[in-house]
Amino acid sequence: VFTDPVLPCGQILAEHLSVPSIFFFRVMPCGLDFEATQCPNPPSYVPRVFTGLTDHMSFLQRVKNLILDIPNYFLCDSVFQPYAKLASEFLQRDVTVLDLWRKASIWLLRLDFVLDYPRPLMPNMIVIGGVNCAYNK
C-alpha cells in the first residue's frame, strides 16, 4: 500500500491485509518518524522546525530547543488518539499509531538538505528529493 503516514488509514488497511506499506511524505508532525524508525533525534542537538536554530547552538539555545519540543509529545498524543482507537477496533487488538508506523517497509522521504537539517537515515529510508519546482527558461 502506497500511503501518506500523516493519516494512518492506509497503514491500518495494509496491516489488515498483511501487505507491505510504502510511506511517501515531506514532514511528519512532532518528529514521530524519528521515533517510529528509531533514528536518533536528541532535542539538545537537533534543531526543531521553526526555531531558526542551527546545529551550532549555545547552551541557552539548546534549552530553548528542548522547551519548544515538549508540547509536541502532548499534542501528538491527542491528535493521533482517534486513529489508535480506530485501528484497535478494526484490527481487533490493542495497537498504537507508532506500532503501525514501525511496520512500514519503505519510507520515501521528500527531504532537501538545503532546507532540512541533515539527519541519520535507517536502511529502509530513501531520500527522493525535496521541493519540486518546474524549470523555467
TrEMBL record:
Q: Which family does it belong to?
A: Belongs to the UDP-glycosyltransferase family.
The species is Apaloderma vittatum (Bar-tailed trogon)
Q: By what name is this protein known?
A: UDP-glucuronosyltransferase 1-1
Tree of life domain: Eukaryota
- InterPro entries registered for this protein in UniProt: UDP-glycosyltransferase (IPR050271), UDP_glucos_trans (IPR002213)
- State its location(s): Membrane
Keywords annotated in UniProt: Glycosyltransferase, Membrane, Transferase, Transmembrane, Transmembrane helix
Q: In its keyword annotation, does this UniProt entry include Kinase?
A: no
A single Pfam family it belongs to is: UDPGT
Q: What does the record give under GO molecular function?
A: UDP-glycosyltransferase activity
What is the membrane topology listed in the Swiss-Prot or TrEMBL record?
A: Single-pass membrane protein
Q: Name one GO cellular component term.
A: membrane
- Does the keyword Transferase feature in the UniProt annotation? yes
